Amino acid sequence: MNVSERISNVFASPIRKLSPYAAAAKAAGKKVYHLNIGQPDIQTPPAFLEAIRAFDDSVIAYGDSRGDARLLNAIQKYYHDWGMDFDINEITITAGGSEALLIAMMGVCDPGDEILVFEPFYANYLSFANVLGVNMKAVTTKAEKGYELPGEAAVEACITPRTKAILITNPGNPTGRVLTSDEMELVARVVKRHDLALIVDEVYREFVYGFPFRSFGVMPGLEDNLIVVDSLSKRYSACGARIGALLSHNADFNEQIMKYCQARLCCPELEQIGAAALYSTPRQYLADVNDEYRRRRDTLEKALSKLPGVTFSSPQGAFYTMIKMPVDSAEKFAIWMLEQFDSHGETVMFAPGDGFYLTPGLGTDEARLAYVLNCADLERAIAIIGEGLKAYPGAKIIA
Amino acid sequence: MNVSERISNVFASPIRKLSPYAAAAKAAGKKVYHLNIGQPDIQTPPAFLEAIRAFDDSVIAYGDSRGDARLLNAIQKYYHDWGMDFDINEITITAGGSEALLIAMMGVCDPGDEILVFEPFYANYLSFANVLGVNMKAVTTKAEKGYELPGEAAVEACITPRTKAILITNPGNPTGRVLTSDEMELVARVVKRHDLALIVDEVYREFVYGFPFRSFGVMPGLEDNLIVVDSLSKRYSACGARIGALLSHNADFNEQIMKYCQARLCCPELEQIGAAALYSTPRQYLADVNDEYRRRRDTLEKALSKLPGVTFSSPQGAFYTMIKMPVDSAEKFAIWMLEQFDSHGETVMFAPGDGFYLTPGLGTDEARLAYVLNCADLERAIAIIGEGLKAYPGAKIIA
């Protein structure tokens, strides 16, 4: 039997595809600092496990396809506090932000349709598009311009009759960029002009440093077009819970996707119980976590600025940054760091940058770093990258 | 914005689409016996919650995309005990059997490709095919012939150049039929002749009454073609855990689907911990549950045989049966039972049969019953259907 072209075409995740090299490095006794994946080391609020431990039903039964009422209510309240009011039947619980993205894409795109993204973008979007037969088109944003959106004409130039949606991550992954109000207005104008879906991935909403975050969800006039992708993975450091959500005011979208949700039956029961409890965490938790990431961001920037030939754009949100390194290939360098290099038995894993771009040739000397480690580990990890750059045979000589 | 054609075309699940009527009936104070959904009332083995309660990591972190090692090892051993040996990298943990089906289909079919099924079939297959742009083609099996497979020529006649897979449920859902060895050989010949994928959904493997079950996984010569869909939902009465698995010896398939699995990151951590513990349940549990369902099957048959004009084929496995009723429309009757009828404040929900057929016009007077209630409730539920049939305005007169 042959596998499908669609699955052959799925791009290997730049975030995870080097995991076998990391496993081998660990098996060889090396300590590996993981800057490749957005897996925070922050403690999950204890309410998660406490609520689950209190669960005592004798049958672990199917739940509602939309989601458990307690969790739906908790998410409704969370959004209300952000100034966004959704009815319960405008919220759908999903198996992580991943399933939310898959369902959003299938809900608005037929095979051959197009989704516009701004590159560099979260690489896994492409995999979901691949399996659905949807084509991604990228508008390039540039490191040297701080990843600001290009003008409206450049965005319009990428719209075709097959374009069905704009998919945008804000705060940005992998760039850490937060959209300005002007940029949000630009996106909203294009969306409304062509009556597109606007799929916004705002899972890093709570991670904006030094200024308030504005959601697309509070912009007037987008009610018919907006689909919000959410996840509690990062918000409450509960990545392994795999609980996300889709929110939209578009009644037709909500009704149609529910048929698919019913076919996949429901989301896991215990994780939903824990997730509902997480939303009762005092808001101070999120403020404290925000402070911690801001410190890490500052630590990262200070450490990176000491590395000769490495450039980066200051991240304003999320917990990622893209860096440009003086190497022949960031992927080769990443593999070399895991296979060939160590500093006192320690090395670093990061995500090669080209996987975050659609345009061939872009990002080959870039890497995404996730600043999800504590400040001391972060400093050490960046110093190891610096040592690696000095020793790497494929490094370019810095004048 | 417009929703996609693919999502518009998704068939509403016959198992869940009448849920709003059931909710209204309950809100009006009626007791509803649920024969519509395969939600067993059997206790989940306590090991599930015990293992989860013992979990004490401070961070609920992403797990491995293939699945947690403990669960993979447990499933490997379970299959070994069934005479099927899979390497760990030939097993992939999924979000229920549902995700296993979705991934199996995307792994072997491109948009426009075809999958052959035998109708009546598990209705949700169609939803997954719909969203992937895959076309289902059905070979009809007939109630009056006990849902036996038609001859090889009839199966061959449905194969086209776009056919990429045969998808078969054994034991059958919704029919409760278990394939004979001759039928399995027939299917294997067709699969090998055209080098198709053979996707076998054997989630009811433990529920065969009075004779041993033979898996496609022990048939020689299918190594390259076989994809086994599994789930612990029914096996351990843990439907809400949403833990399934995909198993295949085809190395290319396994490697390609892992890219998608990495994009969706991982399955829920706590449910995997509970699932691994379930596999340590003494085998006597499964034997006891088998005995219980056999009693229910016998109770169901006895109760159904008392209903004038109702015909059915004796189920040999799983916990479903299709019945034929003397009504104008099983769906109208189902809605009427929930909206208009009660017997001493009680009524019954079942799944209309046409949703389990692809061929228009088939199954309109049929229903799928899930015998997942205890014998007393089951007897009462069938008696209520009998009372309903006497009172239903759309009932046909039985001579």
Describe this entry's structure for a reader:
Two copies of one chain form a homodimer. Chain A has 399 residues and is an alpha/beta fold. The first copy, chain A, folds into two domains: 5-43 and 284-391, Alpha-Beta Complex (Aspartate Aminotransferase, domain 1); 47-278, Type I PLP-dependent aspartate aminotransferase-like (Major domain) (Aspartate Aminotransferase, domain 2). Helices cover 37% and strands 15% of the residues of chain A. The first copy, chain A, is built from 13 helices and 13 strands. Chain A has helices at 5-9, 19-27, 47-54, 69-81, 96-108, 124-132, 152-156, 181-193, 251-263, 269-278, 283-304, 330-339, 375-391, and strands at 31-34, 91-94, 114-119, 135-140, 163-169, 197-201, 226-231, 244-248, 311-312, 320-324, 346-349, 351-352, 366-370. In chain A, the strands form three sheets. In chain A, strands 2-8-7-6-5-3-4 form a seven-stranded mixed β-sheet, with helices on both faces. In chain A, strands 9-10-13-12 form a four-stranded antiparallel β-sheet. The first copy, chain A, has a two-stranded parallel ribbon with strand order 1-11. In chain A, helix 5 (96-108) packs across helix 6. The mean pLDDT of chain A is 96. At the A-B interface, helix 1, helix 3, helix 5, helix 6 and helix 9 of A face helix 1, helix 3, helix 5, helix 6 and helix 9 of B.
- The quaternary state of the protein chains shown equals homodimer
What topology, given as strand order, has the largest sheet of chain A? 2-8-7-6-5-3-4
Question: What is the CATH T-level topology of the largest domain in chain A?
Answer: Aspartate Aminotransferase, domain 2
Rg of chain A is: 21 Å
Number of helices of chain A: 13
Biggest pleated-sheet summary of chain A: 7 strands, mixed
Question: Quick one: CATH class of the largest domain in chain A?
Answer: Alpha Beta
Largest interface: A-B, 85 and 85 residues
Count of domains of chain A: 2
Which regions of chain A have little confidence, pLDDT < 50, spanning 5+ residues? none
The level of helicity of chain A is 25-40%
Q: State the end-to-end CA separation of chain A.
A: 55 Å
User: How many β-strand runs of chain A?
Assistant: 13
CATH architecture of the largest domain in chain A: 3-Layer(aba) Sandwich
- Summed over residues and divided by their number, the pLDDT of chain A gives a mean of 96
Order of helices and strands of chain A: HHEHHEHEHEHEHEEEHHHEEHEEEH
Percent of residues in β-strands of chain A: 15-25%
Q: Tell me, what's the shape of chain A?
A: globular
Which structural class do the helices and strands of chain A define?
Answer: alpha/beta
